[in-house]
Amino acid sequence: MSTTVQFRPQGVCSNGMQVTLDENGIIEQVVITGGCNGNLSGISSLIKGMDAKEAIARMEGISCGPRSTSCPDQLSKALRQALQTQNS
User: Fold this and answer.
1) For 64, phi and psi rounded to 5 degrees?
2) How remote is the C-alpha of 18 from its chain's centroid?
3) What is the pTM of this model?
4) Residue 19 belongs to a domain with what CATH number?
5) Calpha distance 24→35 (Å, rounded)
6) Phi, psi torsion values for 35, nearest 5 degrees
7) What are the DSSP calls for the chain, one per residue?
8) Domain of 63?
9) Which one in 28, 38, 56, 77 has a CA-CA gap of 20 to 30 Å to 64?
């Protein structure tokens, strides 16, 4: 059964993230609202079908300019939340 979570990113231009994982932790869908549409649509497309743990490892800790976080970093947090929800 799939797991979908809504995530509200902090400290970035995007204002909402929805991620769906299949029962094996594979990313089925990512929808991001706000932020740089082209970049975020591209990221969403690239990680679709990827193991959530792999995507987290690749994006976690990325910063954006002077900010200590970024949309990819926030997306890693959304994916981590989805995995935790799935395993509880």
Assistant:
1) -125, 105
2) 8
3) 0.95
4) 3.90.1010
5) 29
6) 75, -165
7) --EEEEE--SSSSEEEEEEEE-TTSBEEEEEEEES-HHHHHHHHHHHTTSBHHHHHHHHTT--BTTBS--HHHHHHHHHHHHHHHHH-
8) 3-87
9) 28
Q: Domain tally for the chain?
A: 1
pLDDT of residue 42: 96
Residue whose tokens read 């797991």? 3
The amino acid at 11: G
Write the pLDDT tens digit of every residue in 4-43.
999 999 999 999 999 999 999 999 999 999 999 999 999 9
Rounded distance, CA 21 to CA 69, Å? 23
Rounded to the nearest angstrom, the gap between the alpha carbon of residue 64 and the centroid of all alpha carbons in its chain is: 15
> Which tokens go with 80?
């981590």
